Amino acid sequence: HKHQMTLSDMSDLYANFPLQSAILTCGVKAHVADGIAQVRSETDKLEFRRNLAYVLYGGIFVGGMCHLEYDYIFPALFGNDHSITTIFEEVIFDNFISAPLFWLPPAYVVKAAVYDYPMKEGLEKYVHDIKHKGLLTKYLSIWIPAQSISFSVIPEHLRIVFMASVSFFWFILFSTVASGEANENNESSA
Fold it and tell me: What is the pTM of this model?
């Protein structure tokens, strides 16, 4: 039992290595969540390239950007107090500015790069999913409550792991929505 990791050790890991733990946590989360979404879609086999796109987006982009946004940008914009006003400003900013402009579009750009189709086509798919698949409505229904909790009661060094826990379920939904057109095209050509 000498090599057993305690909850305190895990907390210390997230406090002492915030960027590395954010990338690792979010990458593993994205891999598993997309795998579940693929199994739920009843495809014949798991798509490696699709999963790679979600691991790259989830680990490097989401993990790294969460660390940057929560640990540097938010304190610079909103200060370090945990008042109701600050929590409200952080939730509103992240959901209505960051999400539609910075969080969601890169998933479509990464997927376009991995599948070797033009970035413009990836961004057109993003707009399509907003207009016709309720992408932002689904996003806001999950993230406004989750971030309200995260910014108010979760210790700062554990925010990313909390958000990754919530994001696990979001990624299953997001992977299903964002990959739905490929499944629809396969069904219509069958």
Answer: 0.76
Per the listing, tokens 């707009």 go with 127
User: What is the DSSP secondary-structure string of 26-91?
Assistant: HHHHHHHHHHHHHHHTT-SS--HHHHHHHHIIIIIIIIHHHHHIIIIIHHHHH-S---HHHHHHHH
HSE-up of residue 80 (Cα within 13 Å, Cβ side): 4
* Cα–Cα dist 64/157, whole Å: 14
pLDDT along the chain (190 residues), means of 10: 79 88 90 85 79 87 90 94 94 96 90 91 95 92 95 91 88 73 41
- Taking the C-alpha atoms of residue 159 and residue 11, their distance in angstroms, rounded to an integer, is 11
How many other CB atoms sit within 10 Å of the CB of residue 106? 17
